[in-house]
Amino acid sequence: MTPSVVVALANLQRRRRGDPPEVPRVDVHRVRWALSEEGVAIDRLIEADLPTLVGLADAVSKLADCLALRRKPSGRAVAVVNQLASGCTGMIQLKVSGRTVQSDVDWHDPDPAAGLARRVIEELAGIDATRLRQCQREECDLIFFDTTRSRSQRWHAEKPCGWLERQHRRRAHD
What we know:
Layout (H helix, E strand, L loop, with lengths): L3 H7 L17 H10 L12 H19 L6 H11 L3 E9 L2 E9 L3 H14 L6 E3 L8 E3 L12 H16 L1
Antiparallel strand pairs: 1-2, 3-4
Helix pairs in contact: 1-2, 1-3, 3-4, 3-5, 4-5
């Protein structure tokens, strides 16, 4: 399981290639883009949801930084995520398909931020947190989930960070 909501929210306010030098402005389009880039669809997002989403993104960013740097997560960040998810309710249902019996939880989220907070909790509880990493290229601080078997991924992406880092080392060596 890849923590796509965690990665998307942790990187929401971080600079990406092509962004202006200042901290990126968060708007509905940037939230949708960041989540869709990680394969997460979000419904009914409006401008009024942005302050809560920015607070959630700040908390998730702090949690991801702590986990990536192998530090104890901030109690404040944990409290923010828990408080936002507290309005979510789930109804467990029995599903029968042929001879197979399964349970399924149908979630009802009061707003998009609550649903994302619930998904952050589910993702963080279901992953190996030691695989959350921060890009090792000095100019980049994006968070990623290391999916390599050897746990050796160093950059959030080969292009641009991996390529630029190797190019920088080659030029410094010459």
